[in-house]
Specification:
With about 110 residues, the chain is mainly beta. The protein has strands at about 15-20, 25-30, 35-40, 45-50, 55-60, 65-70, 75-80, 85-90, 105-110. The strands form two sheets. The protein has a five-stranded antiparallel β-sheet, with no helix packed on it. Strands 1-2-3-4 form a four-stranded antiparallel β-sheet, with no helix packed on it. A hairpin with a 4-residue loop joins strand 7 and strand 8 (about 85-90). The chain is globular, with a radius of gyration of 14 Å.
């Protein structure tokens, strides 16, 4: 049986990953958001706050938190329901998969 199509707002998805328990999906997208979905494609949460495309998103090992990295030079930490926890700012360059923070530049954290 085919799964129902998820509404991705006609935006390219940069990454997708399963939650540790296999019950939810996490997408990172060019529309500046990350989204949490049920395993059958129903939306659960939209993580909004980045100012540019979200390059990647990842679950914490216990599935309670999410980390996102964006072309806006920030990494953000969220509760899995979309509640923001912290913002890490790297003014040197964008962050995302394969793009580490620049160790020679200070990183600002906002909690």
């Amino acid at each position: 049986n085919a799964l129902p199509a998820m509404s991705l707002l006609a935006r390219a998805v940069r990454s997708v990953t399963w939650s540790p328990d296999g019950q939810r999906l996490l997408t990172a997208s060019w529309d500046k958001t990350a989204r949490v979905w049920t395993h059958d494609g129903s939306p659960l949460a939209t993580l909004s706050g980045h100012e540019r495309a979200v390059q990647s998103a990842a679950w914490s090992p216990d599935g309670s938190r999410i980390a996102t990295a964006s072309m806006d030079h920030t990494a953000r930490i969220w509760q899995s329901d979309g509640t923001p926890i912290a913002v890490l700012v790297n003014e040197a360059r964008c962050v995302g998969s394969g793009r580490p923070f620049n160790a020679r530049r200070p990183v600002r954290a906002t909690l």
